[in-house]
Amino acid sequence: MNILILGATGRVGRHLVTYALHDRHHVTVLVRTPEKVQITHKNLTIMQGNVLNKDHIIRAMSGIEAVISALNTDGTTTLSDSMPLIIEAMENERIKRIITIGTAGILQSRTMPNSLRYQSGESRQRSTRAAKEHHKVYDILKQSTLEWTIVCPTYLPDGERIGNYRIERNFLPEDGAKISVPDTAEFTFKQIIASEYIKSRVGISY
């Protein structure tokens, strides 16, 4: 499969690239700084560009069958500003599948069912800025025609791949406290061929 990975130089993104190449997929990454991609592989195409540039996004989508976005908030509005450009390019190329990394803050609250976790005080994060940005992306994806999945990890230490974790649609698993970067990337990568969580948020934790 031809996969486009956005945010490929980030903590989760680097693992996504490794998993995809190991599984013999053709991987394209769109990065601002190609030198930060520390992998060379015959199935890896590195494109220099910016997700906020419509032409760069369109160029990166050519021939792609699925998109994984591990873009983070970085204290900016890059996530919510880039998603409409990503969706438009995908719809024009008739690409249906997108998996994104969100945050447990945008999962449903168990104590306030009509609110998200970051709105209810369940989230341990003191700042809600990142959750609000992910919330915008969630709303944008819901209005699209894409087959989207938002993987929502809780506290995300680097850690090791364990390969055993709990997942729950739209909620954080009970008493979920953390999930490692490699395990988050592994579950996210598996969604490119899975259909169980299409048009859903997925909480993931140990």
How would you portray this structure in words?
The protein has 206 residues and is of the alpha/beta class. It has one domain (2-205): Rossmann fold (3-Layer(aba) Sandwich), CATH 3.40.50.720. The longest helix is centred in the middle third of the chain and has 15 residues, at 78-92. It has helices at residues 11-22, 54-61, 78-92, 117-120, 129-142, 181-190, and strands at residues 2-6, 26-31, 44-48, 66-69, 97-101, 147-153, 166-169, 200-205. The chain is globular, with a radius of gyration of 16 Å. The chain starts with a strand and ends with a strand. α1 (11-22) crosses α6 and α2 (54-61) packs across α3.
Short description:
The protein is 31% helix and 20% strand. The chain contains six helices and eight strands, in the order βαββαβαβααββαβ.
